[in-house]
Amino acid sequence: MHEAMLYTPLQDGKVGCQLCARRCTISDGKLGYCRVRKNEEGTLYSLVYGKACSANPDPIEKKPLWHFHPGSLVMSIATVGCNFRCQFCQNWQISHEREIFGRDLLPDKIVELALKTGCSGVSYTYTEPTIFFEYAYDTAKIAKQKGLFNTFVTNGYLTPEAIETIAPYLDAATVDFKGNANPKFYERYCHVPSVDPIFTALKAMKNAGIHIEITNLVVTDVGDDVKDAEKLAKWIVEELGEETPLHLLRFYPHHQMSNLPPTSIKALEAAANASTQAGLKYVYLGNVPGHQGANTICANCGALLIERLGVHTTSVRLTRQGHCPACNLPIPIILPEDLSST
Ligand code: SF4
Predict the structure, then answer these.
(1) What ranges make up the beta strands (E) of the chain?
(2) Which residue's CA lies nearest to atom 6 of ligand 1?
């Protein structure tokens, strides 16, 4: 067991965890909501430090990060546990798991593995990185020293304190909304009492200079209201900027919501139109292989700039400076140093 970060001792042997917006008060001998943080006689421990249930190189496009080092590989790390209980979770076998399992893999070994497999960075993903914060933090520090970048794929429910702590080592984050960010959807299908902390976290990440991409899982019938999609897009434009990439993801039946059909392409396209009309310049459709909505189009002249198929970038047509070759508009994409342009 590894002592936790960001907690305070309280009265009667209890502790207060300040990692995520649940801010659990945990009695002696008990676990937090995420089931991977335990109070032992007034000390809070992480039960998953060094226990990787996944450690694989992935294309960065899978996160999805489409405006950050396209074409790169990232060592993708997860442990069991989560601070949400989404009924549609596609990784529920690890995120909702009660038993701690995983291969022993300490932070320096993750970085070694990343370098050996040709990864340019480490991604903390699949389950919620906030709940394995200490493991991610120590790995991210070593990764940075070795010239790798770090990215979180997160539900955004982390506290401003957690963001301030990880920010010096965190280069990019994919923040995942569900059901067009509708608060009732979150309450009913994710057991999350409020979406407000996610918006607060996004502003804190932006202020810390972290590259942000947003996903929104559009869920058939119960989380596909186009007015909600428009509201979310307007908030992104106002608070994070019109160039923030938004990925509208197709829902597929999973776990306790396997009775619903996949999101219709029509519903996804309606959400995309509403988001574009709200002012967002880079709106993508995800989980729909072969759809044109996965490509990057110049926001000024409409030239095709980046083509993608599934989770792979198949061609990049940007100048070396990252501009549109047709009209010279600067495109807000952070390119790897070795990506040659055409
Ligand atoms: S990280 Fe876990 S223990 Fe800490 S506040 Fe969140 S759910 Fe509770």
Answers:
(1) 2-3, 7-9, 15-17, 25-26, 37-40, 43-46, 51-52, 54-59, 73-78, 103-104, 121-124, 149-154, 172-178, 211-218, 246-250, 283-286, 296-297, 304-309, 312-316
(2) 20
Q: What contacts 250, CB < 8 A, 6 or more positions away? A: 218, 262, 263, 265, 268, 285, 286, 287, 288
Cβ contacts of residue 230 below 8 Å, gap of 6+? 274, 275, 277, 278
Could you report the per-residue pLDDT of 254-273, keeping only the tens digit for each?
Answer: 777 778 889 999 999 999 99
Helices 226-239 and 196-207 cross at an angle (nearest 10°) of: 30
Span of 96-100, 213-217, 229-233 with lowest mean pLDDT: 96-100
Q: How many angstroms separate the alpha carbon of residue 9 from the centre of ligand 1?
A: 14
Q: Is 83 in the pocket of ligand 1 (CB under 6 A)?
A: yes
* Position 339 confidence tier, pLDDT thresholds 50, 70, 90: low
Q: Calculate how far, in angstroms, residue 191's C-alpha sits from the geometric centre of ligand 1.
A: 14
The alpha carbon of 4 and the centre of ligand 1 are apart by a number of angstroms equal to: 11
* CB of 19 closer than 6 angstroms to any ligand 1 atom: yes
pLDDT per residue as tens digits for the range 1-23:
899 999 999 999 999 999 999 99
Would you state the pLDDT for residue 340? 43
Domains of the chain: 2-46 (no CATH), 51-316 (3.20.20.70)
250 lines ligand 1 (CB under 6 A): no
The pLDDT tens digits for 27-53 are 999 999 999 999 999 999 999 999 999
